[in-house]
Amino acid sequence: MTSSASSSVQARSLGLGLDGGRMVTRVSFFPSSSTFRRTSSSASSSSFQAFHTKSTHGSTQDEDDVDRCAHASAAAGGATTGTGTAMSAAIALALLATPQPALAETVAVGGVASAFAAYGHYASLLTIAGALAVERVTVTAKPTKEQLDRLVAADSIYGIAGVILLGTGYMRAKYYGKGWEFYAHSPVFWVKLALFAVAGASSLLVTTKVVQAAIADNKSEDGDVPEFGDALAQRMIKVINGELLAFGAIPLTASLMARGVGYNQDFPWQAGAALVALPAVGLSAKYLKEAFDTKGEWEK
Questions:
Q1: Are 152 and 277 a contacting pair, CB within 8 Å?
Q2: Contact between residue 158 and residue 132 where contact means Cβ atoms under 8 Å apart
């Protein structure tokens, strides 16, 4: 075998797995079919193709197998096949010396991080839905002290869960999902973000009034609980209903997006970003203005 043919010996397969809790490595070496010349003996050829090691008993056993393969091939093929055999053995030893447990640990750590990001994403969405449901049934024109405290707690949980939802969503899109290049060209992805932006912006009305009522309650000297009034309470309920609809549609958009529905390589991400930014800024200004213009009964 010439030096060019020897250099064509390739590592055709490298598989990693777990067998009874142990790391299993399968490496098979044989010459490239396009460059292997039949000048070597049949014994040498069969010794190459028969080289198949399995690291279930540690690196010592693997090195012994490599040595036996190298000696057998050298004896059968003579000096002309010595270079190729040595190269095969060297490649095999190099791969077997790779810290495979460390590689497994790296894969495991990445999988755990991805799982936690997904769990945080789903759990925060469910938490938001629960907090909004509590707000929906608690808002009333004349809340009691207990009801006002419940509104403050639910709105706080809603805000924290919203931050977690946004953060885990970013991590999944950037590191653990299909890759930013996929999401950037998916119009459904931007619709999903737009729904989040609409819900978040509209929540400013409810959050502002709840915070104002809580501050007034803390400053109250006679123990009277601030009242929202019928008009403001009804408006807050309508806004909460809209938020529930928006967050209820987000799982649908996520399912469509994950299946590539609407994906278009030519779709400019700038258009999607504008779809999110415009309602986020516009509705935030609208609902903040409404929150300060609409007076509760305690402010009149």
A1: no
A2: yes
